[in-house]
Amino acid sequence: MKTFKFQSFVLVLIAFVLGFSEFLIVGILDDLSHQFNVSVATVGYLVTAFAIVYAISTPFITILIGRFNLFWDLMVAMAVFTFGNILSFLAPNFLMLTVSRVVTAMVAGVSISLGLTFAGYVAPMAKRGWLLSWVFSGFSIASVVGVPLGTWISTQFGWRISFLTVIVISVLTMGLIFVSLPKDFKQKKSTISGQLALLGNHRIQIGMLLPMFNLAAIYVFYTYLRPIITNQLHFSVSMLTILLAVFGIANIIGNRASGRLSEGPGMKGMPFVYIGQFILMMLMPLVFNFSWPGALLLTLVIFTIPLINSPIQLFFLQIAEKDYPQSIVLASSLNSIFSNFGIALGSATGGVIVSNLSLDAVGPGGAVYAVVALGLVLWLNHLTSKGLSSRSTNL
């Protein structure tokens, strides 16, 4: 059990350092803008570019490396991730910083996919949901602890030292991976087309859209969380930091609840989550007229964001292990890939709504995607209960 607990810590640490690096830019936007003499909006595009590269590169690289020893795949991916952050630390201009973020993004998705694959491999069946929820919590912890820490380091010692902190944690993580995780872990050998067979599964096709519309619903309003807090709810800038920390804690609790959900009703419990999301988002225009009730509503919605993580991850892994053992790593990557597509879709939708309507409309706008997610999970649960052939290839 001590070995399993240590391995669990290492896997959560992988998620933490990946999240720390990804989210760090948000906290040091102003410092980078000043350093490279570009607008804050231009620096903000680093976040968008990271998400797009992450989503597009992950499936291709995952398929290519899936034929090799997964331990060394993870070590190489983490080494490239560390190298990307070293490039960020040394970047002499904004172009090189952009290149460094592309390098980092290309392997970040692969690294977490491999981490989740190892989580499914080392955990006893009864502990799988528990460990997966903790690995996903690593990203939430990074947003609550890592980003404020990186921001403070940037303010006190300069933004380069923030990246140096990520590098140090990355190297430490690689050392812990080397001494803790099994070195003989391989998935069944297969051709590229054999691995892609997973994507022909009817339930996989529907299931991978769930993380996408889950986060699309959230990011319609979440992208504008700061102006919502300060302009709509009329909280001070000092309260903004406190509320963001509260929201981060709510997200961590949601991840833990996700593990419980996967051990209980699993995907059958998700329709109630999306019904709740829909109601809360439709209430936003009304409740946003009141500061504290509005903050409470936001906390509740943010709590629901990660509830899908463990149930859908287990769902993907169980299908892959049963019918597509050659595609386990690809199955592990689907959640993170389509979550990033959802972030892009939701933030773009939010931009259109804010530009043409107002901040009051972002809640109902997100509710539309929550309805789509509800329809998808009901459809998926229906197919699962009917025992639809896992080899179906057409929607």
Automatic annotation (TrEMBL):
GO terms for cellular component: plasma membrane. It is found in: Cell membrane. Keywords: Cell membrane, Membrane, Transmembrane, Transmembrane helix, Transport. GO terms for molecular function: transmembrane transporter activity. CDD domains: MFS_NepI_like. InterPro entries: MFS, MFS_dom, MFS_Efflux_Transporters, MFS_trans_sf. Pfam families: MFS_1 (PF07690). Its main location: membrane. It is a multi-pass membrane protein. The chain crosses the membrane at residues 9-29, 35-56, 68-90, 102-123, 130-153, 159-181, 202-221, 233-252, 272-290, 296-316, 328-354, 366-383. Residues 7-385 form the Major facilitator superfamily (MFS) profile domain. Signal peptide: none annotated. PANTHER family: CHLORAMPHENICOL EFFLUX PUMP RV0191, PURINE EFFLUX PUMP PBUE. This is Arabinose efflux permease.
